[in-house]
Amino acid sequence: MAEQPTDVAILDHAYATIMSSIVEDGHAPHYADLAGMLDTTTSESLALLNELCAITPGWMHPGTDWLASFPPFNVQPTQYRITIDDKHGWFGQ
Questions:
Q1: Which of 12, 32, 45, 80 has the maximal Cβ count within 10 Å?
Q2: Peptide bond preceding 72: is omega within 30 degrees of 0, i.e. cis?
């Protein structure tokens, strides 16, 4: 039996939480940390990350469970530097 898609409100909350974390400190949370932020299990958090990456142009670093890119941010350095409120530390896709 095919797995049902996650409720859009849950995906929105997960997306906003990840985005806030990236804006706050320039790093995407690991799914284990995200689980605590969302009050879910680690397996549910990893499933949410995978689902978000399937419906956005974001992706996990190959062979790992770490976010590499989460639009519009790239978690790994690129030539596209982003400045927020005169503070440097982010990279674009």
A1: 45
A2: yes
Residues 8-92, CATH architecture: Orthogonal Bundle (1.10)
Tell me the pLDDT tens digit for each residue of 20-43. 999 988 889 999 999 999 999 999
Instruction: Determine the residue type at 43.
Output: S
Dist. CA 91–CA 3, nearest whole Å: 34
The DSSP symbol for 75 reads: S
Q: From start to end of 7-61, where are the E strands?
A: 59-60
Radius of gyration of the chain (CA): 13
- Rounded Cα distance, 79 and 50, in Å: 26
| Confidence (pTM) | 0.84
17 CB-side CA count, 13 A: 21
The pairing of strands 67-70 and 59-60 is: antiparallel
